[in-house]
Amino acid sequence: MGGDVTYSFAKKKSYTCKQIDDIVLFAEKSGLLQVIEDKSIKNLVDYAIGVEVGLDTNARKNRSGVAMEKLTEVYVKAICDKHNFKYLAQATAVKIGQEFGKTITTDKADRHFDFAIDTGEMLYLMEVNYYGGGGSKLKSVAGEFSNLFNLVKNKNTGFIWVTDGKGWLTAKRPLFETFNATDYVMNIKMIEQGLLEEIVMKGL
User: Fold this and answer.
1) Between 101 and 170, where is the model more confident?
2) Does 18 or 95 have the greater pLDDT score?
C-alpha cells in the first residue's frame, strides 16, 4: 500500500469501505488482530481502557518530571546569575570536563546529571525527580542515589538530590534513610526557602 495513512479515532455513526480497510490494516500492523486471534485477552474493552489509562499515566509522569526539572532550573539559573556561577543541564562527565575543566567519578559512562553547578571552588552535581505515585521503585531509587552520593562526593564535589511528589508519602522510610546517608536531599519548598542558594554560596 503506497502513501501514508492518517488515522482519526473519533467515533462515527458509519464508515466507508476505505475507512474500514484502513482500520483493519491498522489492527493488523499494530498486532491487535494477532492478540485477538490468540485470545491473549479476555475482554477487549477492558484491555483498550487499560491501554488508555496506562498511556495517560505515563504521559502525566513524563510531564511531571519535565516540569520539575524546568522549575528547578529556574532557581539554579537565578542563583548562578546572582553569584556569577556556571551551570550545565544534562551534564555528563565529558561535558563537565570540557566546560569546567573538572574530573568526576560516576557509576556509569553515560550518566547524565540533571544539573552541575560550578562555583569555582566547588562542583555540585544534582539529580531532580518527581514521583506522583508510590511503589517499590522508590526504595531502589533512594538506594541508587545513596550509592551515587558515596561515589561522587569528595572535598571539591557535592551531590544534591531534589525530589518531590506525593509518592514519597508511601515510601517515607527509604527517603528518611537516604536523607540520613547523604548530605542534601531537598524538595522544591526547601529550594524556595533558600537552602540550595545557601549551600552553593557557602560551599557547604
Assistant:
1) 101
2) 95
Reported as a single tens digit per residue, the pLDDT across 124-155 is 999 888 877 666 567 677 777 778 787 788 88
- How far apart, in whole angstroms, are the C-alpha atoms of residue 126 and residue 182? 13
- Give the chain's domains with CATH numbers: 65-202 (3.40.1350.10)
Scan for cell 511503589, then name that residue.
135
Which of 12, 52, 48 is CA-nearest to residue 27?
A: 48
Return the pLDDT at 3. Answer: 58
Asked if residue 172 lies in contact with residue 54, where contact means CB atoms within 8 angstroms, the answer is no
CA 61 to CA 131: how far, in whole Å?
A: 8
C-beta atoms surrounding 126 within 10 Å: 25
Q: Could you tell me if 115 and 80 are in contact, meaning their C-beta atoms sit under 8 angstroms apart?
A: no
